[in-house]
Amino acid sequence: MSKTILITGCSSGLGISIAVQAAQAGHRVYATMRNLDKRADLDATATEAGVSLTMLPLDVQDMTTITACVDQILGEAGQIDVLVNNAGAGFVRSTEQASEDDISWVMDVNFMGVVRCVKAVMPHFRTRRSGHVISISSVGGLVGQPFNEIYCGAKFAVEGYMEAMASYITPHFGIHFTTVEPGGIQSEFAASVLKHVADTGGMLEDEYLPILQKYVGGSQRRQAGSDIYQTADQVAEVVMGCIASDSPPIRTRTSTWGEAFCALKTDLDPEGRKLQQQVIDQFLCD
Ligand code: NAP
Questions:
Q1: I need a labelling partner for 215 at 20 to 30 A (CA). Which of 25, 149, 244, 263 fits?
Q2: How many A from CA of 278 to the centre of ligand 1?
Q3: pTM of this prediction exceeds 0.85
Q4: Are strands 82-85 and 251-253 parallel, antiparallel or unpaired?
Q5: How far, in Å, from the CA of 208 to the mean position of ligand 1?
Q6: What is the pLDDT at residue 143?
């Protein structure tokens, strides 16, 4: 069945792959980005794949652009079936090293951005008693990692937010919530993180430096030759499986590496369904 899909953060990486694969699968795709001047890569990939999609401006930090985008899609297509919260930004600094502005920005893009987009589509989803919110989190939304406490905090927030909504909105209104937890993705993401570090004073000469160097050096080695990193297309295939499912998981990893890395947190309930039932039984039984 063809669905109407709104995707955020489609100027690069995973957003491009999800948009193009969704269009290839026959869905009506609204691929959004905060700056349409960065549309060239998506344009080229869609043209190469022989698919058409609609590009619209949407900045997850600006509710006005989100509302305008949702209104335009509803005006044109009449409905939205799936919201994919893909836009996100990484951040590597210890709490002591991070400025309050940086911390607010990371939380705003990665967490508040998701909340704003959900807020914009929920009245429509609830009226229709259907809809699917898919949020791209990370294994960092389940397992805290060095120098990533601010980013992990934002992704943990996304996980808790999605899990809480799945506990009462899914059983009462038929709206599904899925959190996708990739490991590494070959994209602009890591380069943007390193650029941000360079633009904000570089690696500071302090007690954290040798630990940070160990972490950054290690991640470069890991990126070179391991199964931690997937292509954006591989991760998008997992997202496509969630879109196609009538009973999508509440959470899912995207690789065997990610599954193993998170196993201590997820083995008992890999898709989050048992936990959802436990919360319903505790708080929503008659
Ligand atoms: P990417 O290539 O850096 O793409 C990130 C996208 O988010 C870009 O399109 C970027 O747009 C967009 N974005 C940033 N701030 C935005 C805002 N305020 N409004 C709208 N869009 C905004 O990285 P990616 O790997 O594809 O990341 C996609 C998702 O996967 C993110 O949620 C990320 O946290 C998650 N993830 C990534 C990795 C990884 O290793 N790459 C691992 C696990 C999870 P601009 O081009 O305008 O900046």
A1: 263
A2: 33
A3: yes
A4: unpaired
A5: 26
A6: 98
